[in-house]
Hints:
The complex is a heterodimer.
Chain A: H1 11-30, H2 39-51, H3 53-86, H4 88-101, H5 106-117, H6 121-145, H7 149-157, H8 162-199, H9 205-214, H10 218-246
Chain B: E1 2-12, E2 18-29, E3 34-38, H1 45-53, E4 60-65, E5 68-69, E6 77-80, H2 92-102, H3 107-120, H4 136-149, E7 154-158, H5 166-183, E8 186-191, H6 194-200, E9 203-207, E10 214-219, H7 228-232, H8 235-249
Parallel strand pairs in B: 3-8, 3-9, 6-7, 7-8
Antiparallel strand pairs in B: 1-2, 1-4, 4-5, 9-10
Helix pairs in contact in B: 2-3, 2-4, 3-4, 6-8
Amino acid sequence: xxxxxxxxxxxPPLLACAGLLAxxxxxxxxxxxxxxxxxxxxxxxxxxxxTDPESLLNILASIKRMxxxxxxxxxxxxxxxxxxxxxxxxxxxxxxxxxxxxPVPKAALMPVIMLWLGVGDASKTLVIFLGVSLPVIYHAYxxxxxxxxxxxxxxxxxxxxxxxxxxxxxxxAALPEIMVGIRTGLVLALITMVTSEMIARQQxxxxxxxxxxxxxxxxxxxxxxxxxxxxxxxxxAAFELLRGRMVAWAEPVHEIAVGTT
Amino acid sequence: MISIExxxxxxxxxxxxxxxxxxxxxxxxxxxxxxxxxxPSGCGKSTLLYIVGGFVTPSTxxxxxxxxxxxxxxxxxxxxxxxxxxxxxxxxLGNVMYGLVEQGAPKAMAEARARALIxxxxxxxxxxxxxxxxxxxxxxxxAIARTxxxxxxxxxxxxxxxxxxxxxxxxxxxxxxxxxxRDRKTVLFVTHSVEEAVFLSDRVVVLTRSPGRIKTxxxxxxxxxxxxxxLLVDRRYQQYVxxxxxxMDNPADVIP
Lengths: 261, 256
């Protein structure tokens, strides 16, 4: 019995990446696009960047800010979202604020934030915090709203008070939805990390990228883009593994057969 | 044990219209009685149950349990819902243990009692299954075991077998009576099935169409234990069903 190619784990994304790299290489060779180096030249720069201690420090500093902003965001957004989902009053209080901040690109808030907090870690971490908070609040809110009333009543009959019900019934019940929100939050953490460094130039992976662009070192520019892409991919894959473990109880029991093989 | 005095409930909708769901319900339920609340759809029978449970507040009137007024939910009145309302992130064992652990019982003792109850509802071997892996009948058995675990003196059952197929339903009715015979708790059982009400209960409270008022209360004098095969051919059982179904045909009239 032959195993179908799409069924081998990890193979489809690898093939997609290989295809993308091949297309990039061919495009750079056959079309004269200024500023687009061939793929192999950009990839050659990868080890150069990754073995340079200063660049590594930059990358690690970026990741550190991302983690700090992300952690604070979760600590704030999950309780707020849950409370909004269960209390009309709390929802009415926070909703207008969120509706104003949500559509604004966080990068556009940077100049204002820089006025208050300077160009260092604080301003960048705050932007990351804002970027992650909003989808997490939204999904925690939706998840909390959808919790079955009868489940809460059952818990109340057992003697659980409102606060206990929020943390030990609403939170686990809403967790699948919250995890979806966190996944979006991770993506936004990465994006706001880079864009905040574009505006508040000091150090970080965004700094490497935009310095290289200013100096027309396009190999480095694209190599940095690849690094950021790999970072995002690894973080997302790791998160999906975690999510699978944590909310296995919510997944459908039978695998849904999708049309084509 | 349960005293309901002139209970009424009006629901206010978001649009400002109000709907009178229950009107002047007065009822006394003695300890150890199995009482069914029977009525057409929308008559307020579930609302009545929820008010006794403390999940919904009445508009007028009072509910008392053993002389003390009902102010909210509590472990003396254990609910079982039609939708099962199990905690999906917990296993069968985790669900059944939950109330006991909540009351501060040591984990080992809670687990032992839970296992005994799981066996009693014929789910031995399924302790580590998650609710999503269970059939409807199994889920309802877990729900019943979970409520029994924390030892309420009153069981409030809201059409618990409504979501089950006919065969499972009659099986569960028998299982429920078996469980009930052990310690004869007070039961308030909401249903819209006349046969189910007569089969299970000592008394059947028949409600009118919305706004729900008590149309009449029928005392069911049939021997216990109730055996389905015997009752189905028993003239008295059949007469009860016929009489009550006739009552249900005129859902608005109140019979004094």
